[in-house]
UniProtKB/TrEMBL annotation:
<protein>
    <submittedName>
        <fullName>Uncharacterized protein</fullName>
    </submittedName>
</protein>
Length: 160
């Protein structure tokens, strides 16, 4: 279970472009891009994360805030293996990102206190895609339940 505090981190990480001479790379952040960029721009950036990392990034989470709703999209890299091929780097064909989960969070200001409504239940992030290895004893997927997503929404609206 993630703590409420974990949603408040507004730091970023830079991923240098592999195989793209002269290009700086991508820098993910959780502070303002989801408000200042369009959803189409965020999706372009998501695709760049996969390609510019030479497909080492396996999961991207987009958060789009438009003032009335928060849209969360979980994108994963789809890597099918050719039938009969051994699993090597050369036998894998990158098919591009696949939208695995969409969650919409809305705010209801007609209630006292203000309430938040989450569609689609918990946000689950695959341990294997995040850490690029199988999970060990006591390890598992990261799950953010409805209550944690409501707390996240409350924090987002508190910043507006």
């Amino acid at each position: 279970m993630a703590s409420k505090k974990s949603w408040r981190d507004i730091s970023s990480a830079t991923r240098l472009a592999q195989g793209y001479a002269g290009r700086r790379g991508k820098e993910g952040d959780s502070s303002e891009a989801g408000f200042s960029q369009t959803l189409a721009q965020l999706r372009i950036g998501m695709r760049q994360w996969f390609s510019m990392s030479n497909h080492e990034v396996k999961i991207v989470l987009l958060a789009k805030f438009d003032g009335t709703t928060i849209l969360l999209e979980k994108w994963e890299e789809e890597i099918p293996v050719r039938p009969g091929a051994t699993t090597t780097r050369h036998s894998l064909q990158h098919q591009g990102p696949v939208l695995r989960q969409t969650i919409t969070i809305t705010r209801d200001t007609t209630t006292d206190p203000i309430s938040y409504h989450v569609t689609s239940g918990a946000l689950v992030l695959s341990f294997r895609l995040l850490f690029l290895r199988d999970r060990g004893p006591g390890e598992g997927d990261l799950a953010f339940g409805v209550q944690e997503l409501e707390e996240y929404a409350e924090d987002v609206w508190a910043q507006v």
